[in-house]
Amino acid sequence: MKAVVIGAGMGGLSAGIALRRAGLEVEVYEQVVENRPVGAAISVWSNGVKCLNHLGLGHRVAELGGQMDHMAYRDGFTGEDMCRFSLAPVTEQTGQRPYPVARAELQAMLMEELGAEHLRMGRRMVGIDDDGLRVTATFEDGSTATGDLLVGADGARSRTREYVLGRPVERRYAGYVNFNGLVEVDEAVGPPDQWTTYVGDGKRVSVMPVAGGRFYFFFDVPLPAGLPYERSRAREVLSEHFAGWAPPVHRLIRALDPQRTNRVEIHDLDPLPTWTRGRVALLGDAGHSTTPDIGQGGCSAMEDAVVLAMALQTNTISVEDSLRRYQERRAGRAGELVLRARRRSDVTHAVDPDVTAAWYDELRREDGSNVIRGIVANIVGNPLG
Predict the structure, then answer these.
(1) Which domains does the chain have, with CATH numbers?
(2) What is the pTM of this model?
(3) Which segments does the entry list as coiled coil (predicted)?
């Protein structure tokens, strides 16, 4: 059996590896010509690491991951700790340590594991044809790829999704812009083993450790969509948005490289009515595009990959039946995580300022138990326990 996978992001590459391990012939097609992931890093929570463990990659993700032992929230204006606690209970309760990982390095590792002979770069899909026996993808250059099934892991602007639903779907703007990148660890900004987050006025500044003595950083700013932006002005723009904030925040702004700082307007999708059509199935952001507020986007895509391979390996009525069983196992959980992230986003970014102010007050009384409970709740229910 042959699978054609569209998209070489976290989900598509994980799917390609999982399907190969399940005995399928696999070809992965990606529209860009080189590895250029969107976003500087990814939070691989315990469920995502378990998926990578399942694919035989546990030791490699551990080498790429930062040692994130603690978590702290700080007042954005004073810089004082609102709360600080150990993340050890996450590992103890889920059976696996989480890792923040540089996205490009994780993607390169997955590409290497898949194998260059299974990867086709520079192929932009423009059409799908399913004759009931085989499915064919047509690419912009006129070439085609035919298989027994097609997996649409082609991201938040998925063309496969339009085919599956028979119509385009408008993404929902979450109301904020995320600036992110990598810098060297600076203990004046945060400890090297801690996820440190400064909050205030619905804005957020975070640093998380990744391998190589680096922090993954991000700034969240509630803003209208579509505002003009020049990458070279990243420091000036962030200095304006965070005027009056604590010195460590401005130290971080001075340290970032504007040309390597990403700016992303954050969107998500309402849960979809279906993920499959005949021999075609959605995976990752194509099926459940989410805001990054609970760090489960990439992890959910990895869960998709594992369950898809299981469904094709263990159910033999038909490809169409296997894909429907995959959808039945995944759509409810993935959709719920999208909605949880949306609710978390609204609180974090002051959609209702009174609710956000109340959350800040709660953080000042937090001993870690409530935050840990929320993190673990996102992890449990994953397909690998």
Answers:
(1) 2-171+268-379 (3.50.50.60)
(2) 0.96
(3) none
